[in-house]
Amino acid sequence: MIRPADYDFFARFLKERSGLILTDDKHYLLESRLIPLLNRFAIPDFARLAEILKSNEAPIIAEAVVEAMTTNESLFFRDKVPFEDMARSLLPALCAARLKTHTLRIWCAAASTGQEPYSIAMMLAEKPELTGGRRVQIIGTDISSEVLERARAGRYNQFEVQRGLSVQQLLKYFVKSGDWWEVVPQLKAMIEYRKFNLLDPFGGLGTFDLIMCRNVLIYFDVPTKADILARMSRQLAPDGFLQLGGAETAIGICDAFRPLPDHRGTYVHTRAPATIVAARR
Prior knowledge:
Elements: H1 4-18, H2 27-40, H3 46-55, H4 59-69, H5 81-96, E1 104-108, H6 115-126, E2 136-142, H7 145-153, E3 155-156, H8 158-161, H9 167-173, E4 174-177, E5 180-183, H10 185-188, E6 191-195, E7 208-213, H11 222-235, E8 236-244, E9 257-259, E10 266-269, H12 274-279
Parallel strand pairs: 1-2, 1-7, 2-6, 7-8
Antiparallel strand pairs: 3-5, 4-5, 8-10, 9-10
EC number: 2.1.1.80
Protein name: protein-glutamate O-methyltransferase
GO molecular function: methyltransferase activity
């Protein structure tokens, strides 16, 4: 059982380190996620864990706590619509405004175990005409080292590949290896994975033509969401696109973006010329 004072500390710790908001009704969630960690590091109880975190005597344990509380739910072509919209409207519009020598840069800002970046890579491999021969760089970032290791390996179990993939996609872009299915080297080469905390400065990431930040902002409070969105706006090309999750919005949170009409979940710069917005409807 976690004492109230320790629970309050864990909530503050997670907010400071990851932006995660832990409300008063999440005692069971916190306990269920941290008990395996107590066993792993032979820590007798939650009170001792709190002491370790307060003293900063074991950074590896502090990182493990953040990773334990990170939600890593992901699946291939999740929600479908964003990927269909990307293929039908967003990528053609971006290519029409760029030279053939331009490298299209796409950022998956909460890549988790890699299903989202690999979905984009599969789509581009299946339809190379979408980029008109341009080089594409996909950057997948996540706060968790553990999930990034899985993403780089590109190995998924039978349950995971059945979520979002057709049989044709599975056989074309994966190789069976024992009980696992592994992404083919062609797709792996299209993606660079980096450990990254969305609370950290974005400057080193460079400028992107398209940012997918889906199903992660829902775990942050409004000020944190506003800060992340404002900083993302500075990393997005003037005519670029931001895609958020179905339960997320920038409206009323960040005035740097406005929704793109007729494209659910997609946003453009507020100051984007009306002709640019109109061309993408």
